[in-house]
Amino acid sequence: MTKLKIAIQKSGRLNEQSLSLLRECGISIDNGKDQLVAQSSNFPLEVLYLRNSDIPQYVDDGVADLAIIGSNTAHECRTEVVKILDLGFSRCRLSMAVPRETIWTGIAWLQGKRIATSYPNSLEIFLKENGIQAETHVISGSVEIAPSIGLADAVCDLVSSGSTLIKNGLKEVYTILKSEAILVANKALETEKRALLDQLIFRIEAVLAAKNNKYILLNAPKDRIDEICALIPGVKSPTVIPLGQEGWVSLHSVVNENRFWEVIGQLKAAGAEGILVVPIEKMIR
Ligand code: PRT
Question: Is 179 in the pocket of ligand 1 (CB under 6 A)?
C-alpha cells in the first residue's frame, strides 16, 4: 500500500505542534518514545523524526515526501522543496541585532562589520541584495553572546519574544525575513502520493480554518437584519431563525478571529444582544 512519509522535527520547538496538528486532522500516530520512525494506524502515513536542519535535504532527496519545517529553514537550505501551506505556528523572524548603545544608521551601518549567525545563506542573500560587504562568522548556537565576547559587531539570529536579545545587551534593528511553520513537499511526488497529499491538505485546511474562525450567535431586532448580516456574512449567508418574542430573530454566522473585536462593537451598535461566541472544531468551506 502507498504511504506518505512526513518528516517532523525529532525534538525542539516544532515537534509538539506538528504532532498536535496531525492529531487534530484525526491522524493517530503510534508514538513510542525514542522511535525514529512511527506509523499512523488510521491514515497511510509514516512519520520520520529528524533534526530540523537536516529535513529539507531529506525531502529534496525524496527520503521523505513531506515535512513540517520553519519557512526560515527552507530559505536557508539551498534545496528545491515545494511549499504547500502556511501552518500559522512557530512564528519568528530572522533579524539583525547590535549592541544596545550602537547608533544604528540603517543597513549601511553593516558595511565592513563582523556579523555572527547560524544562518549564513540567508545572511549572504540579504547582504548581497543590499550591496553590503561584511565578514560572516558562522556559529551553531548562542549567537547572541558573540558581540560581548568581541567576536562580532552584530548578530543575525531568530527572534520571537526578543527577550534573549535584551538579556544579552542587544537591540533588534532590522527584520530580514518573517517565518512560520510550513508544510513542504518533494517536487516530484508520484500520482498516488499526490492524491494522499490532497487528502491531508483538505484536513489541514479544515483545521486551520476552524482555528481562524468563531461561530457566533446573537439576537437581533427584525428591522436590523440586513445591517447585521452585512457585518457577519459568514460562509454563504447567516442563518436567521425567528424568536418567540415578536419582532426579534436569532442570527447565526461565522466570524474571522482577526476581525472579531472590531465586529462585536459594530454588532452591538447595530442593536445585537445576547451575543454568544463558540469555538469551531473543523470548518469545511
Ligand atoms: O536541532 P535541530 O536541527 O532539530 O533544531 P534547531 O536548532 O534548528 O531548532 P529549534 O527547535 O531551535 O527551532 C526550530 C524552528 O523553530 C526554527 O527553525 C524556527 O523556524 C522556529 N522558531 C520559532 C525558533 C524560534 N521561534 C526562536 N525563538 N527557533 C529558534 N529560536 C531561538 C533563537 O535562535 C534565539 O536563540 O530562540 C532564541 C530567541 O527567542 P526569544 O523568544 O528570546 O526572542
Answer: yes
